[in-house]
Amino acid sequence: MPKKKKKGKKGKKKKEYLPPIYDIPPYDDPYETTPKVKLRLILANPPVDALNQDIELPINTRLDYLVNKIKEKHSGAIGDVIIYKDQHEKVETLDLTKKIEDCGLAINPGSEVALPVYYDFKPVTYPILF
After folding, report:
1. pLDDT digits (tens, 9 = 90+) for 99-108
2. CATH number for the domain including 83?
3. DSSP 3-state of 5
4. What is the rounded average pLDDT of the residues 111-117?
5. Section 8-15 average pLDDT
6. Which range of residues forms the domain containing residue 43?
7. DSSP string spanning 20-81?
8. How many domains, in total, are found in the chain?
9. Residue 49, in any domain of the structure
10. Whose CB among 23, 42, 108, 121 lies 3.0–4.6 Å from 78's, allowing a Cys bridge?
11. pLDDT of 26 higher than 80
12. If DSSP codes are grouped into helix, strand and coil, which group holds residue 111?
């Protein structure tokens, strides 16, 4: 039986690329570089300390997300959440489609002091069925 010839690997040439024309800036992760603000969610009426909650959010977060967090805290048994900036008055009601920075809540991002945000709601009048 004749011996089999070993097939040698053919030398493949590596593609050489031209050096980049422009300097590529380093990538900054927006989740890490966006300033964050601490908010203290306080139930306006009746004031109950057990329902107060501290939360830290990026300043470009919409207030809808904040409403969802409040509903999670109450296990979904609330509806029609209203958020107030400084005090419990109709004049201070915030638009839920805006961002935190647009509403003036991002006064001092990165500080250790939590900014108070008041909220009120209407309880759900129908039973929750699972």
Report:
1. 988 888 877 7
2. 3.10.20.90
3. coil
4. 82
5. 67
6. 39-123
7. PSSPPPPP--HHHHS-EEEEEEEE-SS--GGG-EEEEEETT-BHHHHHHHHHHHTTT-EEEE
8. 1
9. yes
10. 121
11. yes
12. coil
